[in-house]
TrEMBL record:
GO molecular function, a single term: phosphorelay sensor kinase activity
CDD domains documented for this protein: HATPase, HisKA
Protein name: histidine kinase
Protein location: Membrane
Membrane-spanning ranges: 7-30
Catalytic activity: ATP + protein L-histidine = ADP + protein N-phospho-L-histidine
GO CC, any one term: plasma membrane
SUPFAM superfamilies attached to this UniProt entry: ATPase domain of HSP90 chaperone/DNA topoisomerase II/histidine kinase, Homodimeric domain of signal transducing histidine kinase
UniProt keyword terms in alphabetical order: Kinase, Membrane, Phosphoprotein, Transferase, Transmembrane, Transmembrane helix, Two-component regulatory system
Native organism taxonomy: Bacteria, Bacillati, Bacillota, Clostridia, Eubacteriales
Amino acid sequence: MIRRLKIKFVCVNMAIVVVMLGAIFAALLFSTQRSLEREGVEFLRQAAASPLQMLSPGERQQLAQSPYFFLDVTPEGEILAVGSNSYDLEYRGALLPILTMARRSADQVGVLEDYNLRFYQVRTPTSHRILFADISSERHAMESLTRGCLAAGAASLVVFFLISLGLAQWAVRPVEEAWRRQKQFVADASHELKTPLTVILANAQLIRDSGCDLAQLPQRVERIAQESVSMRGLVEQLLELARADSGIPAGQRAQVDLSRLVNDRVMAFEPVLFENGHLLGSRVEEGIALWGSAPRLERVLEALLDNANKYAAPGGAVHVELRRLGRRHCLLTVASQGEPIPPQLRKKLFYRFYRGDGARPAQGSYGLGLAIARQAVAEHGGRIWVEPVADTNLFCVRLPLRWAPWRGR
């Protein structure tokens, strides 16, 4: 699929380039040809208005730059007089075919293709003069310009083709990465779902077996229930991510008292962290409110606190802080003591199914919490990142305080 996308990208680019170059060169050739024709006709008009024998030496030199000759003829086609600036017209018999073709034309200006001549007719009640000018130089100039355009076009196509290849590689790279991560996501989701299903099926088969020990029956039923709850949690998280990917808003948008929401979540998580030996502290600036989805903002804080509970150092402290950043933004931080996260892993923390220490689902970690938090923050027009401070990992969430439209992924 990625290869076809690259080929399509290059083909579209090259088609656009071909059309643009074709239009540019066609316009150049057309305008040049029309300009040469106008100059040639103007030259003949001036020559017709000023007979050669009446010109000054300077004017004769100017007209001599282009070979021409004229014929004065009677209405019956008899040649009365001839004149030229460069042609030998002693043998008038050679002029009769040219004269005949020009007189047959009803146009004042025309071209005799077989002779490479342009003619210009001046008719008066008493005379008929026909001027002829050689257009070989015009045609040579157009042929040279055409060859130059073809060479420039071919070179341009080669250059643009190479540029298009580079652009295709650069433009498709995010799609390629998204496709790779999607396939990895499907594989990881299948693996995570397979584990509880295997446990459930194994215990169900043992219960169904007539030789199952009845004393172990409650234990096996409990095991099935635990794995079912675990699988339900995973499926709910996957559905939440799928809804966010499709741009479906999760929950109604309303004015949210963020200060109160943070205080409530801190109080709810305090016993959980205390049981695991962590001290939870908080510092919340009052009166911070924004327009958003309260359930989605709760998921952000829950994901950060759950992550701190799992990965903080034994006995390490966890601190939550909410404060304003100027008049338009606020900053939510969750700091947990522990080994600093390496720089190369900080972005990966927000990837789906990523677990920095290889924690397994049995420990309640699927690697989806921070991915859900990142999407929820993006929906509110904010940004989430992690940075180490001494022996503490600081997760930061920056949110706008003013109203903003819903932002799908």
